[in-house]
Automatic annotation (TrEMBL):
Keyword Transmembrane helix: yes
Record's GO cellular component terms: plasma membrane
Compartmental location: Cell membrane; Membrane
An example Gene Ontology molecular-function term: sigma factor antagonist activity
InterPro entries attached to this UniProt entry: Anti-sigma-K/W_factor (IPR051474), Anti_sigma_zinc_sf (IPR041916), RskA_C (IPR018764)
Location of the Anti-sigma K factor RskA C-terminal domain: 130-286
Record membrane topology: Single-pass membrane protein
GO BP annotations listed: regulation of translation
Lineage: Bacteria, Pseudomonadati, Acidobacteriota, Terriglobia, Terriglobales
Name the record gives this protein: Regulator of SigK
Domain of life from the UniProt record: Bacteria
Length: 292
């Protein structure tokens, strides 16, 4: 290789894929840096490799390039056994499987495996939700406990008010019972029908003079054609002597004052009967009032 000798295209392909030994790689790099034609060829090779890398359909590399590649691989194994890395064969994986072509010359080397996520990375995103759910549960429990506490406090306040009211009423009753100015009155059951007053009569008689005064009270009213009649019953057994008729007023009061009676007749008793209007000469039984 000299300034007038250009690099073979296969060597440029190996150079682009970084498969040459370090010394050859350095020589080609120095030559390409100074040779515009080889630089242009290297750019084309790199472009081809990029196209291969982004092509879906599988295209076999040129047979000559493949053969040279295999020779170069064999030589690399002999010269640098330790540093050589087994070159994986070209393989393609369909896009439908979500991967790209891999391998040398494909422009995309072995598919990068996603880093494995440890358990903390898997669990940590859910920690926030779990904490939020726990906080919500605790808040709900606190809300219900607060309502229950308010209900109990309201009930206790109601009972306390009732006890205070009862105590105030008891104190007022005690003050009324012990007040020296209090008036004590005993009440009894009232009779269902009022008892009518009992008719009464008082006679004042002087036998020697034949003077008689009779006063009556609580006398019941009579029918229009009836009248009360006073009788003097003699002590010697003679028949009763009429001593006058009378009618009570609206208050039941009546009187017979100084009726015409014979003098000197001792009275055994006095009686009152109910007679027809105008009076009678003999009493009509029964005698409703009598006294001696």
């Amino acid at each position: 290789m000299s300034a007038t000798r250009h690099i073979e295209r296969e060597d440029l392909a190996l150079f682009a894929m970084q498969l040459l030994p370090k010394d050859e790689h350095a020589l080609i790099a120095a030559h390409v840096a100074q040779c515009a034609e080889c630089g242009q060829a290297l750019a084309e090779v790199q472009g081809d490799l990029a196209v291969y890398a982004h092509t879906v359909d599988m295209h076999s590399p040129p047979a000559q390039a493949k053969e040279r590649l295999m020779k170069q691989v064999a030589r690399e194994k002999k010269t640098v056994p330790v540093e050589r890395v087994a070159t994986p064969p070209l393989e393609f994986v369909g896009r439908s499987e979500g991967t790209y072509r891999t391998g040398l010359g494909s422009g995309a080397y072995l598919a990068e495996e996603e880093p494995k996520r440890n358990w903390a990375a898997k669990v940590f995103p859910w920690v926030g939700w779990a904490v939020a759910a726990a906080v919500a549960v605790v808040a709900g429990n606190l809300y219900h406990e607060r309502d229950a506490l308010l209900s109990r406090m309201t009930a206790q306040a109601g009972r306390l008010d009732q006890v205070s009211a009862d105590a105030a009423a008891a104190k007022q009753v005690m003050e009324a019972m012990t007040d020296p100015a209090a008036k004590h009155v005993t009440l009894t059951k009232a009779p269902s029908t009022p008892t009518p007053p009992v008719p009464q009569g008082r006679a004042t008689y002087v036998a020697e003079k034949g003077t008689l005064i009779f006063l009556a009270s609580n006398m019941e009213p009579l029918q229009p054609y009836k009248t009360y009649e006073l009788w003097l019953i003699p002590a010697d057994g003679r028949d009763p002597i009429p001593a006058g008729t009378f009618h009570p007023d609206e208050r039941g009061n009546a009187s017979v004052i100084l009726p015409p009676l014979p003098k000197g007749i001792e009275a055994k008793a006095f009686g009152v009967t109910v007679e027809d209007e105008g009076g009678s000469q003999t009493p009509t039984m029964p005698i409703i009032m009598a006294g001696n």
